Amino acid sequence: MNPVPVPGAQQARDTGQRADDHRVAVIGAGAIARDHVTAIAGVPGLRLAHVVDRHPERAAALAALAEGATWSTDPATAWSDAVDVTAVCTSPESHADLGVAALRAGRAVLLEKPAALSVPDTDRILAAAKTAGRPLLVAQTARFQPVHLEIARSVASGAIGTPRLAHLTWYTGHVWPGGWRGWQLDASRSGGHVAHNGVHALDLLTWLMDDEPVRVFARPCRTWAPGMPTPDSFQILVRFSRGALATIELCYALVERGTFVRRLMLAGTTGTLHHSSEDEPRTRSASPVAPASTEGAMTAQTRHLRDVLDGVAAPLTAPRQVRAALAAALAAQLSADESRPVDVKEVC
Question: 168 near 264, Cβ under 8 Å?
């Protein structure tokens, strides 16, 4: 069974820089790297020490957000002796090599999702972490959204018995028009939309169901932009090893940018849990506001990183779940590409 999640166990630490702060190097200076830097700044016990990006001006601009942080265009500086933990926030095709290099250098690693673009590369990362004896966390902020933490605690307490059926839908105004560019539109770098964003939902359900997907069937859709190089929406049907079923529907292309609609239902042998962001109070403003049930996930994940580095928590993303979710996402991408059901073992 999964442990009861308790990220952020040491939230009462003093603020301000300290000599024993964990020094973080961030590789990449894009939007997700900036989100990590912002979260690091708000978590006592961590400090941004270094930024690496191939574009000097971007590396310098991100490093300037933290007092004393340095920058470079050389990835190897992100696992130097001046660093305790390396956060890999680059495009997915580079994750495996960077993560393995940092682990072999003795650094803890926070790896953005997806962990890699193949199961063998994922195995390489997991093996490097085991050999080095260093923490490896794969960034999966969906686990740290308040509603999902609450549901996970309920499942772990036995509130619904054994989960047998899940239905998850996420709708977001994000990718069109103009929300995606570069690597996100290039399947050779992203793994494809079903892989690089579907892994969020598949990881969440792998965790909540405490089971591994064995067969998937995915259908992609270009909702509002038929000319886009990659589908903006998709559905995935999932069968787990113990017979449980899940339906996933993700749309990243609602017309109003920034719109969020989230629904999750879990049915178990003795009860049901469900949540919809539509049931939450809504705020009308010039810019859509994310539902409270999803807020603060990046900060919660960063507190959890701090606790893992302090030795008071184990990584919430267990190695077997990292591998299972990634394999399921790659199988779902293959299913979407070839319009057929795929056994997860085909990609392993």
Answer: yes
- The answer to whether residue 15 scores a pLDDT higher than 70 is no
Q: What is the mean pLDDT of residues 198-210?
A: 98
Q: What is the pLDDT of residues 102-150, one digit of tens each?
A: 999 999 999 999 999 999 999 999 999 999 999 999 999 999 999 999 9
Beta strands in the chain (DSSP E): 22-27, 46-52, 70-72, 85-88, 108-111, 136-138, 163-172, 213-221, 233-240, 245-251, 260-268, 272-276, 342-343
As annotated, the residues of the chain forming the CATH 3.40.50.720 domain(s) are 22-139
CATH class given for the domain over 142-347: alpha beta
The CATH 3.30.360.10 portion of the chain extends over 142-347
Burial class (CB in 10 A: 0-12, 13-18, 19+), 347: buried
pTM > 0.90: yes or no: yes
Name the region of 321 (left: φ>0; alpha: ψ -120 to 50; beta: rest): alpha
**Regarding the domain with residue range 22-139, which homologous superfamily does it belong to in the CATH classification?**
NAD(P)-binding Rossmann-like Domain (3.40.50.720)
Give the per-residue pLDDT at 166. Answer: 99
